[in-house]
Please model this.
Amino acid sequence: MALDTRTDDQLIADLCAGNPEAFGELYRRYRNPLFSFCMRMVGDQSHAGDLLHDVFLKLYRSAATIREPGALRTWLFRVARNEVLMSARQNREVAAQDPDLVWESETPETLLESAELRDVLQRALVSLKAEYREVLLLREEGGLSYSEIAIITGDSKSSVKSRLFKARRALATLLAPRLGERSSQ
Amino acid sequence: MNCESCQETLSAFIDGDASEHDAASAFQHLSECKVCRSFFTLTIDLEHSLRTMPVPDIPARVDHRVIQIPAREKAWKEDWFTRLTSLLQHRLSVPLPAVAGAVGFLLVALGFSFWLLTRPGLIPQQQIIYVVSTPPVEVYGLRTPSENAQQ
Model:
């Protein structure tokens, strides 16, 4: 059977049996969403590349521990999220702040200086506080359900729902003029 | 339903994670609230923008490093003895003969200790010594007891 038609669980079994091509196929499947998640969490291409490498190194070493069927996507994003948080702790990027504050250091007004909506959105995402950014990216990049995000972040489903709403409201409010322009075009 | 809970429900509705009852209440509120209608429109536009954002380019060196993981890990496992000796020689500056001598001495010491412990009779066992003693017999001459009785 061709590798691209095999399920994640079958590929994990192949990998455990020592087939390196299964690893390549898993990388091909998940490299883009995981890299996008890491890139938009840390805002640096080189750093995101290192995180992506570490996620797949852990996959290679711990593949035999992923026993639950269909759990690979959640497992990968959980590892990616942990790597991002660990790296942020090491870089002292996470500071204790007001939990209701949605934005990081960059103020929304300075974000609007860029001409392109896409650029503004990219910068706005990076400027969201990590706990809001991660749920939004796990939803958008990972395509994960609220329950899966709750498992990854260790929060309740209602907390995930609330944080997603606040992140969207903050972005929608900030980008309202640009989004309005796009809608009217 | 107030605006806050309506907008939270609409956010969940976009993700397909709102209950039918909550969604019905939110849409009821939406028909009467301009602010929430505006929020809903903006959020849908935002979702579209987020989902059509281009995937950032992955540097070629990252692809290469990740694809090489199985080969690197395999080589690491197969090469552990070489790495160990290399580590000892280069990091700890200990010559290989000294390491071999130390390991050999350790093995001999362990083997001797094992032999001593498992050798039978090394630990003194309690021995039962039977002392057989006969009652003292006094001999009065060369006559037998029957001869004595006859006297």
